[in-house]
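EI: anyone free to look at a 675-residue chain?
SC: sure, send it
EI:
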Amino acid sequence: MQRKDRVFEALRSLCTQRPTQGGVLRRYAGFSAEEVAEEAEVDRTNASRDLNALAQEGRIERIPGRPVLFKLKAPVQGTGPLVTSDTRSGEKRTHAMLSSAEAQMAVASQPRERTIQLNHAPTVSASVQVGAIASDFETLIGNHEGLKVAIQQAKAAILYPPRGLHTLLHGPSGVGKTTVARLMHTFALEQHALPKDAPFVSFNCADYAGNPQLLMAHLFGVVRGAYTGADHDREGLVEQANRGILFLDEVHRLPPEGQEMLFYLMDRERFRRMGDTKERPASLLLLAATTEDPAVSLLPTFRRRIPMMITLPGLHERSMMERYELVRAFFTTECSSIGAHIHVVSQVLHAFLLYDCPGNIGQLRTDVQLTCARAYLEYRTNNLSELHVHLDILPDHIRRGLLRTAELHRTLDPALARLEATHVFTPTGLSLNNGPDSSHSLYDAISHELLTLRKNGLHDEEINKLLHQDIQRYFQRFAYTVTQTRPDAMAHLVDERVMTVSHTVTEYAAEQLQRTFPEKLSLVLALHLSSALEYLAQGRSQPVSPLQSMRLTYPIEYEVARVALLHIRSALNAALPESELDVLTILFANADSLLSDTQAKVGIVVAAHGRGIASGLAELTNTLVGTNTIAAVELSLEQSPEELLALVTRSVSETDQGSGVLLLVDFTSLLSACR
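SC: here you go
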């Protein structure tokens, strides 16, 4: 029986044992090449090639996605019971879906839009591809953004005549080096840069780093008697990868003699098995990956034979929108695996976008899976119909990302409305439950968020900081509306009486605070007051003022806002709630940064001992750069720690333009005090 026929019979056997289903779980719709290869006892690469050939002949059906699945054209009605091998293959199939965190990084960035109709809330469509692993470079998240240069280099390495360029993939753990290597193999087959049966052989050098002899045996093979226990000839990975691609992960764990042997292989296309004197031919394309500095961890002779080096960026170097797409992809994958809808509230989504994730995409994938596991426990324990991912089940290190919520506006302004919605992931797509999204629901949003955050055990200081940021984003959306609206069209948005009150209040605040506000402040305030009046006209309940720290944080602005609120109530004959006092205080205190059309700069303070040192550095840098954002503080040894701290604190406060201050000092104790 030919191998292709064995593969076909193996697929038939699998379909007999477990008929394929067309339900919501994609993994039940067919069988992967890995499962068929195990059943047929053939190499996975050969099985994949034969399955694709059978699909082209029309004998079986190919289901696109990642992994690609296959099933018979006609349903097979099996009568036999499920055997143990099927259960074992099911476990391997699940493992294949979940084990490689790097592989999960790839999701289609521009998939088909679809709307999911739920029976409890209105939804709007949002795009996401089912099956969260990329099948080619075009479906890789960031292929036109953070990974654009890397993908261009990868394609160039594959297409360069006559047989491509040996390539080193460099980057920290978890950035997707293995994924890129596999996609390079796929691209090579698509472009006919390699033979259609060219294998892809992957090996992690770290697996045998403690036993160099065994590592070399795996790579280059052995002849009988090469060492104790070598009782027969055995081919190595180099021979298996002949005419294809050999991918060596953690290549820096390869001993120097191994690097020399690879150097010889790349140079002469010949090698020797361990214990053999006979040279054997091998023509392959070497892809290597390392997390270390190649200049330090690899031999110069080895590096010189690898002309192409591709550096993959860490997660912190990718755009926030790319990270958003990754989070969506991972939740979609978990939803497909679990088989139930997953509701993710907006605050959880914010936390995933902002928390510190040193393990890059691999850790992000694992953290999403861990969070879903916690939600799944609640789902099963309480016998719920759907999974709900809320703040209570978030690990602490992810929840701390909420303290950086202000960064969302600076990096995701076009997508802020989407991020405020609850994301409902289903096995077939994603819907957004926007809930109360209009600006007049500010008071409801504050009250709801206050109760939620207190229920989750956050301290009042953290709650005030988060709510403060929410109110800032609220006004920033109004500022965006004003910027995009023609001046002659504003009269159609705001009542003339409200506009007059807004101008009066803005002029009063500018006079009392001795500041010049942005011109759009009165327009933004008018839009807010119009929304507040609409809120009151609906007879909604008035929340208690939640930001108790405003009086202490902005004492002058707070008193100005108190008088302004009295005038607004009187002029508009409206019983605005007490929480309006906090809203006006934040608006007056942060008007410049909230309504500025330009990005606020990071201030710099240089504090150093010695006459003229700090001021000289600041003056020179300001002159060279053409700025005035660098301030100097000259310190002396006669000053007490309290005096030093007061001087630096005052300078930091004066230098801050809304994006923070970089503090450069000549002793570390001051940094500790400033924290």
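EI: Residues 22-27, 75-132, 434-440 have pLDDT under 50 and may be disordered.
SC: 👍
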